[in-house]
Amino acid sequence: MQLEELKSKFEQFLRQKGYKVTKGRFEIIDKIASYGPHFEIEELVRWIANQDRSIASRSTVYRTVRLLQEFGAIREVIKLGNRTIYEFVAGKPHHEHLICVECGKIIEFYKEEIEELQDKVCEEHDFTPLNHRLEIFGVCSECKGKKT
Amino acid sequence: MQLEELKSKFEQFLRQKGYKVTKGRFEIIDKIASYGPHFEIEELVRWIANQDRSIASRSTVYRTVRLLQEFGAIREVIKLGNRTIYEFVAGKPHHEHLICVECGKIIEFYKEEIEELQDKVCEEHDFTPLNHRLEIFGVCSECKGKKT
DNA sequence: CCTCCTATTGAAAATGATATTCATTTAGCT
DNA sequence: AGCTAAATGAATATCATTTTCAATAGGAGG
Q: Are B103 and B143 in contact (CB under 8 A)?
């Protein structure tokens, strides 16, 4: 199972960094994995609390999400207003997002040519890219239908 | 002068929306225009206060920036942590941003082909794009030099 | 020019996400 | 088992942004 592999890689990461391998951290990973690909921390905290009050405090969830970002298993997808939506990457390949402003649905896509053009732009500016984010806001097919 | 034109368009906008044409709003536009293309609101508030204590309160600056966003003269460029960087668009054509993670410099670029590919992706997903944002984080040429 | 109504303003307080503090607990080494 | 540093939980702090509310000022009609 992919999740187990991720967890064992995360364990290696923790040891290598001199961090401790705690039960709580792995419980949070399980919860995130079963929650779904996209989440907000506050939402996640509430969801975890509803399911099992003994898992982790709000602070620990925040701290663990930061740790998982450092590890690379979680990425920030969008910031809208004061909301931050994260995604559980878990080795998923790089991709960009279409975001429906009506229903909030997030559609993932990947376009090799866009990536190449970005590299070209960076070269032209003698800029060394580390990471990037392309977000397209609009209306998804379902919501278009609804708007009679 | 372009700025005067913008202000007169903004005045039209205000009247059309039934908003009031106040001195404060135009003073804020002047300040933003002379501040530079990219700014954070808190930074701007401090800067305005330093220059002329009588211009506008923090609340009014926030409110006016929102109004100018609605009008289209200001756009949100990036959200990093809890910071939001805006840009004074003022009729400037659409473009994307390279952001240096070392010095914070923002470089603007435009690549027609990337825009076209985005439209293509949207079509493929039957998604109607409203707006988009491409941010590339990395190290600019100057900062690369410094890192001996 | 005056009056009235409503939008705007300023200051302070509220909000909401996230970070931090600090005392207590626990992982992991010896 | 015992020690030490890191992790945890709860409460508190922080910081940008929004809201509230009382005072003020546009601007339409007279």
A: yes
